[in-house]
Amino acid sequence: MKQNAIGGFDIYVNDMDRAAAFYQTVLNQQLENMGDPTDSSVEMKAFITDMDNYGAGGALVKRESAGPVTGGTIVYFGTEDCTAEESRVADAGGKVINPKMSIGEFGFVSVCMDTEGNLFGLSSMK
Questions:
Q1: Which member of 2, 70, 115, 116 has the lowest number of beta carbons within 10 Å of its beta carbon?
Q2: Which parts of the chain sit beneath pLDDT 70?
Q3: Selection from 19, 13, 15 nearest residue 31 by Cα
Q4: Alpha helical stretches, state H, 6-71
């Protein structure tokens, strides 16, 4: 079976409640509690994932041995029009770093910072 390069992602956080509230507000979706089968001290909340659809699933993760980082890999969340999600970032406690911009035939992106200091992107075709 051929698949996309990304099978999933983790966004590391220090404050799970604050981070979950941020992403739930910005993306307008609930996150689901998820456990780490190898370490009960790890706290995880998963983004809604339907493995029959295009894209990768992922989770917020609070783990003692890892934390947020600014300037690392950026995860882009697919949206209908990234302007809508971008408009909720500041009120949710985050920051818009680069407002919606064209990336030519690939649509549009916004780059933002969450409440934990992680950079993330929003992507849309309109």
A1: 2
A2: 1-4
A3: 19
A4: 16-27
